[in-house]
Design goal:
Protein name: Histidine kinase
Largest sheet: 6 strands, mixed
Number of helices: 0
Helix content: under 10%
Number of domains: 1
CATH superfamily: YVTN repeat-like/Quinoprotein amine dehydrogenase
Oligomer: single chain
Strand content: over 45%
Radius of gyration: 20 Å
Shape: globular
Keywords: Signal
CATH architecture: 7 Propeller
CATH class: Mainly Beta
Structural class: mainly beta
Number of strands: 34
Strand order of the largest sheet: 3-4-34-33-32-31
InterPro entries: Reg_prop, WD40/YVTN_repeat-like_dom_sf
CATH topology: Methylamine Dehydrogenase, Chain H
């Protein structure tokens, strides 16, 4: 196993969004990013710029290459920003103090924003439309958004909803869910949906029924991350319990690839699998590892793993995102956004409120 140790320093701050209406024209709120290049003790280059959020919950990429960043600033507010490599544009500055958690660009180029307490917002580039339980959403607490191959939009959180462009269909504990705390949704190449839950069981949905993921007579619980790789294998993270760690399912067999704790999973363009985990809790965030499982040895008895050690003052590395240019983005619970391109680790930190 190979190790690289990178030391990072982060600036923390608070950014406040302005109040507005649920349906309105967007007024651009643009914040220029400031960049610094410094060299760490081991010679690695760290590029510093600033994200105007305290906690970055999810990162996505638009078809034009821009990065969409969703996150919160407090118990009451948050925002969704578009980053074009030079500046951040607040896309939600007129929506009030909403705690945004996820963002999606659908196949038509429209944007969807999920919040933890106010339902979801649809933005067509000119105006917003607000969806809550009044419009048919299962619950106003939404943690994830997913578009399936048919163009339906799925919303997971305190319940599961499917929107076909006209109406919602909701799935709750009545459909054999063990609980309604949905954490992740993906569709595999066969059209089946894989659904992870926070404290309950993981399910597969085939348009007719929900089937629990069962291994050796027991269900997988507390599944937070699920992906499908280029070969059609399903990878997922189990957070604690008997089955803790990184798992792979090839359609017939479950394989426990690693029993180490895993926070997030992503596949890059080359087919490598990336994960994050906490190595040493320690003080001030401790040491975290960005791990790469080499594509060439994924199915060997012993997989080649390269670990990049990050000494960061954060409590959680929340997620990973693989960009079109091959870089890996990491979002954290303390508003630090990092990008790794194979040679350089760049961290994007919030400067708002320091003036």
């Amino acid at each position: 196993m190979k190790y690289v140790l990178l030391y990072t320093l982060f600036l923390m701050s608070v950014f406040h969004t302005s109040c507005g209406q649920n349906r309105t024209e967007v007024k651009k709120n643009i914040i220029k990013s400031e960049t610094k290049d410094t060299v760490t003790s081991n010679g690695s280059h760290l590029i510093y710029t600033y994200v105007p959020l305290r906690m970055v919950s999810n990162i996505r990429q638009e078809r034009n290459g821009s990065i969409l960043i969703a996150g919160t600033n407090s118990l009451f507010g948050g925002a969704v920003f578009r980053y074009d490599g030079k500046s951040y544009t607040n896309l939600t500055d007129k929506l009030g103090l909403q705690r945004f958690w996820d963002v999606l660009e659908d196949r038509r180029g429209n944007l969807w924003f999920a919040s933890l307490d106010s339902g979801v917002y649809y933005y067509n580039g000119k105006s917003f439309q607000h969806f809550t339980t009044r419009e048919g959403l299962a619950n106003n607490a939404v943690m994830c958004i997913y578009e399936d191959k048919a163009g339906n939009i799925w919303f997971g959180g305190s319940g599961l909803s499917r929107y076909d462009g006209k109406s919602f269909r909701n799935f709750t504990t009545k459909e054999r869910f063990s609980n309604n705390d949905i954490t992740t949704i993906i569709e595999d190449k066969t059209g089946k949906l894989w659904i992870g839950t926070k404290t309950g069981e993981a399910f597969v949905y085939d348009e007719k029924s929900f089937t629990r993921l069962i291994h050796e007579g027991q269900a997988f619980y507390n599944v937070w991350s699920i992906i499908e790789d280029k070969n059609g294998n399903i990878w997922f993270r189990v957070n604690g319990g008997r089955d803790k760690g990184l798992w792979r399912y090839d359609g017939s067999t479950f394989t426990n690839v690693s029993q180490r704790g895993v926070n997030a999973i992503v596949e890059d363009k080359k087919g490598n699998i990336w994960t994050t985990r906490q190595v040493n809790p320690g003080g001030n965030g401790g040491v975290w590892a960005l791990s790469r499982y080499d594509q060439k040895s994924l199915y060997n008895k012993k997989t080649t793993v390269t670990e990049i050690m990050l000494r960061v003052p954060v409590s959680t590395l929340l997620g990973l995102f693989a960009a079109d240019d091959g870089s890996i983005w990491i979002n954290t619970s303390e508003g630090v956004l990092c990008r790794y391109d194979g040679n350089t680790l760049a961290d994007f930190k919030s400067k708002a409120g320091q003036q």
